[in-house]
Amino acid sequence: MNHHESTNPYSANHIYWSGASGAQYPQVRPDNRKMAKLDRILSSWSGAPKKGALFAIKKYGLPDELTRSMLIWHYRRPWKCIVIHRDPVPHNFPMPHPDFFEQTINYRVPPELFDEVGKYDGSVRVDRTKGEASAKCDKEPMNILALNLLNDIVVGKRSVEEARMFYAEQAIQFNVHHKPSPYTSRLLFPIPTDTADPDKPVVTMEPRIESSKDET
Fold it and tell me: What does the pLDDT read at residue 31?
């Protein structure tokens, strides 16, 4: 691997290391072994997932966890977790695209709205117990859009049908006409804390006391 100081605006005080796969890895203190492993992994990736992985590396630095099929970042604001999947899932809403770029925030969706979330977008997932919401698309701005509209549904600003229509309009503006909007640029609501919901027990496990037989 070769290294050089980068003039890229994302790379202030970073050294960029060029790998055999053509990727450039930002790191203040380079971890040669991690970057070598990352380069080996990405050499077997292709298409949109590889492009998405390089975008995430450029913006968020080296991933915290590496596997052959996933790259994972933890706690990169505003995200609680970012996962780039090597193997995309076809998704046809609002237009055909691959889902591989997953981003998660702390967020609580009332259980009575879970069906509405499912009707809104099959690639928006909520975890009641952990208090999380995730969006999985092919690029970060579409995840931001998906989560902004999730919040609109939860707070009663839009119905499911209105959210889906607005999503489609914004996706066309961004992907076809290259026009971003506040809905695709940043999360438009404060990210909450203390969102976990461990639920309530309905069964109490009382300790059993075994009675011993008297020896005769």
Answer: 77
Interacting residues of 194 by C-beta distance below 8 A, sequence separation 6+: 131
Whole-number pLDDT of residue 212: 58
The burial of 171, by beta-carbon neighbours within 10 Å (0-12 exposed, 13-18 middle, 19 or more buried), is given as buried
Residue 169: the pLDDT is 98
Give the distance between the most distant pair of CA atoms in the chain. Answer: 91
Q: How far is residue 193 CA from its own chain's centroid?
A: 17
Q: Which residues of the chain have pLDDT under 50?
A: 1-18, 20, 27-28
Q: Are 22 and 15 in contact (CB under 8 A)?
A: no
Q: Could you count the other beta carbons within 10 Å of the beta carbon of residue 129?
A: 9
- What is the structure's pLDDT at 20? 45
Distance between CA atoms of 5 and 16, rounded to whole angstroms?
6
b or e along 151-162 (b: 16 or more beta carbons within 10 Å of the residue's beta carbon)? Answer: bbbbeeebebee
Among 105, 95, 114, 113, CA closest to 164: 95
Query: Counting beta carbons within 10 angstroms of the beta carbon of residue 2, is it exposed (0 to 12), middle (13 to 18) or buried (19 or more)?
Result: exposed
- Look at residue 161 in the predicted model and tell me its pLDDT: 98
